């Protein structure tokens, strides 16, 4: 069998591919449980001492603003006290913060259920809207729960609508055709997810973050997320927050250009990533979703139920055994990712945004003779 170095050499033999694409293809073809994954950083297992190198990259503890989020507010969002979180950064990626599962036991179930049962409902927008009439996509959960409750991964059967779901947009709905947000394409952002995002952002030093837009991605085991940069939001000084649930995935974080070799890392259930500052506009991708490392159908952290008595003011809601059976069967072969963004700068309105966009376009047109080009974007993160 060809070893890791042999595979990399074979992939590198194609001069038409940039460095990011080569590594993306390598990990897309890798086999779990082999030496192919030795170069992938795992922030939750066998971490080096802070300040030591992990492969070619130095991992260090990233400071958090413990005093910005009270223990009560963290608990309301289903999070451990910030003083108990572990946050890490990578040398060469300023503004990138990785927080391995800071959720309280059982609370991941709330967010999984919300992604599948509530956030997928109308008036939110999803990929199925282009192929189905509104009545058919109004309640994907209701039309899928019976199929999923009786799911047998070893038997072939028709896929439920939830299993055909690939993305959902929240708040300011992203226009995939012209790659913009607009004031007239908006539905109220979920208050529980806004609260969670505000607490995480504050703990990372971004007080006043406003959750205005969300893109949820629903991955199957054979799904990938292409190489892209999230730059459609007007205010890039605010972070991009990413929450992962379900099966693990490999995340590639690159540079400003695609000829820079990316860094590979695992994203496990409950992990949170924050991309801010310099790292806010870096190329990134997901080349592979991996079956659960524990050898069970679900990560062990998802086997713990929500507590019977939720604290006062909690944004989490009880999750019935029947609902969780549907969620658990779905996640046996799937991963869900929530990304949350602030679209507008503080105090900015859409009229100002349109004026600035028109000005940018005029400058772009003036530069056509100089062959100035804007990067192509795919914000599906």
Task: Spell out the blueprint of helices and strands.
Layout: H1 4-12, H2 19-28, E1 53-54, E2 57-61, H3 71-76, E3 88-90, E4 96-99, H4 108-118, E5 125-126, H5 134-137, H6 140-149, H7 161-164, E6 167-171, H8 191-203, E7 213-220, E8 225-228, E9 240-246, E10 248-253, E11 263-267, E12 272-275, E13 284-290, H9 321-331, E14 334-341, H10 350-366
Antiparallel strand pairs: 1-2, 2-3, 4-12, 5-6, 6-7, 7-14, 8-13, 9-12, 9-14, 10-11, 10-13
Helix pairs in contact: 1-2, 6-9
Structure summarized in a few sentences:
With 381 residues, this protein is α+β, with helices and mostly antiparallel strands.
Describe this structure in words.
This protein has 381 residues and is an alpha+beta fold. The protein is built from 10 helices and 14 strands. The chain has helices spanning 4-12, 19-28, 71-76, 108-118, 134-137, 140-149, 161-164, 191-203, 321-331, 350-366; strands at residues 53-54, 57-61, 88-90, 96-99, 125-126, 167-171, 213-220, 225-228, 240-246, 248-253, 263-267, 272-275, 284-290, 334-341. The strands form 3 sheets. It has a 7-stranded antiparallel beta sheet, with helices on one face. Strand 1 (53-54) and strand 2 (57-61) form a beta hairpin. The protein is globular, with a radius of gyration of 21 Å.
